[in-house]
Amino acid sequence: MPFTLLQTEGAAQQRAALRSDAALAKRFKAVSKCLRLLAADPRHPGLNTHKYTSLTGANGEGVFEAYAETNTACAYRVFWHYGPSKREITVIAITPHP
After folding, report:
1. From CA 30, how far away is CA 35, in angstroms rounded?
2. Which pairs with CB-CB distance under 8 Å and at least 24 residues apart come from 46-53?
3. 31, 15 contact by CB (below 8 A)
4. Mean pLDDT by 10 residues, the chain (98 residues)
5. How many angstroms separate the CA atoms of 16 and 72, rounded?
6. DSSP string, 26-93
7. CB-based burial of residue 11 (10 Å sphere; 0-12 exposed, 13-18 middle, 19+ buried)?
8. Nearest alpha carbon to residue 61 among 75, 72, 51, 47
9. CB 2 within 8 A of CB 40
């Protein structure tokens, strides 16, 4: 059973910035695929999902990191947590890996 994806305002702005920049079209495509896989199965092997210990959600939720790209300089990552309701995932950031 798929999850419903929600986005924080920051994540929505980050995704919109990727969408609007033609030079980042490949990255936007990778992030879009990552979000589709995340909605279908957050444990999909291609996402390399793991708990991110340096962050917590607004209400203390555990935050996870999913890979949108691998083996790429400044590869994009999607940070998210479960909730606020069952079968929902909140995307909190879409950002390049430092």
Report:
1. 9
2. 52/79
3. yes
4. 93 96 93 96 94 84 93 90 94 90
5. 21
6. HHHHHHHHHHHHHHH-TT-GGGT-EEEEEEE-TTSPEEEEEES--SSTT-EEEEEEE-SSTTEEEEEE
7. buried
8. 51
9. yes
